[in-house]
Amino acid sequence: MLYECSSGLLGNGHHLHGISTISFQAWLSQSKRSKDYALPNSSWSQDMMDLYSRFLEMCKDGTWKRIPSYSDTADHVPGKACVHLESLKLANEKERKGTRFFPRNLDTEGVGFEYAMFLNPSEKRMVCLFQPGPYLEGHRGFAHGGSTATIIDSTVGGCAIFVAGRVMTANLSINYRNPIPLGSVVLVDSKVDQIEGRKVFLSCHVRSIDGQTLHAEATALFIQLNSTKSLQQQVSSQ
Ligand SMILES: CCCCCCCC/C=C\CCCCCCCC(=O)SCCNC(=O)CCNC(=O)[C@H](O)C(C)(C)COP(=O)(O)OP(=O)(O)OC[C@H]1O[C@@H](n2cnc3c(N)ncnc32)[C@H](O)[C@@H]1OP(=O)(O)O
């Protein structure tokens, strides 16, 4: 199902550089036919379940929104970008066969990235509950720094998508402060700090759920892509 952008996420009819963002509901209904991986499964620890329930509770008054998660990359980008990507997807179905959104690339539950994101629209903030599995090992018993970078990029990326639609990471700077034990649950907390034209600046902290350990802190710059060109056109014109 294709759809057009309508009401804005940052208030009615919000426009950022001429690009109207879509309503959260429209995006949710666009993607609901795909399997949602951000729902609890048997690999989730009690800590993960407890935190997830706490955030679900905070969704009840609309302050927070649970963000679904899919294995198809095209489903992650809302708005007009989705129309472009949907067409691209239909046109190139053959070539696209077998591609997956990187953090959802494993079939077995619990071995890789287990995560669920929640968006706070008024604070332009995205929080990700992350439980790294055994296939993300770097040093013995700890998550690989690249997997931490991936979950940070995806969380700040989700936040940037919320404010600016189709974006790409231009810069991601991470300070790793304390290793993340495999199987533990951490909170990846990101927010938009500033928007300057097409540039979206964000910051992010990764903390243990008791808040006592700072695992990593990051800053990121995302660039809003030209809405009049499809992703395919942008790639082929470079
Ligand atoms: C309903 C809403 C709900 C939403 C929720 C959704 C939930 C979804 C959940 C989860 C989402 C998952 C999210 C996934 C995230 C993953 C993202 C990635 O991994 S992206 C792959 C890695 N990145 C690349 O490969 C880029 C490679 N670079 C490029 O393609 C270009 O450099 C690009 C597009 C970044 C910029 O190129 P140009 O030609 O469009 O723009 P130019 O003119 O170069 O830059 C624009 C401005 O930005 C500055 N700029 C560009 N790069 C910079 C840099 N690295 N550092 C500082 N400034 C930079 C420039 O100086 C310029 O600034 P001046 O306008 O002159 O002030």
From TrEMBL:
Reaction(s) catalysed by this chain's protein: (5Z,8Z,11Z,14Z)-eicosatetraenoyl-CoA + H2O = (5Z,8Z,11Z,14Z)-eicosatetraenoate + CoA + H(+); hexadecanoyl-CoA + H2O = hexadecanoate + CoA + H(+); tetradecanoyl-CoA + H2O = tetradecanoate + CoA + H(+); (9Z)-octadecenoyl-CoA + H2O = (9Z)-octadecenoate + CoA + H(+)
Thioesterase domain ranges (all copies): 141-213
Signal sequence region: none
One cellular-component annotation, GO: mitochondrial inner membrane
Xref: Pfam families: 4HBT
Main localization (coarse): membrane
EC number: 3.1.2.2
Localization in the cell: Cell projection, Ruffle membrane; Cytoplasm; Mitochondrion inner membrane; Mitochondrion intermembrane space
Record has Cytoplasm as a keyword: yes
BP term (GO), one: regulation of mitochondrial membrane permeability involved in apoptotic process
Membrane topology: Peripheral membrane protein
Gene3D superfamilies assigned: Hotdog Thioesterase
GO terms for MF: long-chain fatty acyl-CoA hydrolase activity
Record's keyword terms, sorted: Apoptosis, Cell membrane, Cell projection, Cytoplasm, Fatty acid metabolism, Hydrolase, Lipid metabolism, Membrane, Mitochondrion, Mitochondrion inner membrane, Transit peptide
Family indicated by similarity: Belongs to the THEM4/THEM5 thioesterase family.
Protein's name according to its UniProt entry: Acyl-coenzyme A thioesterase THEM4
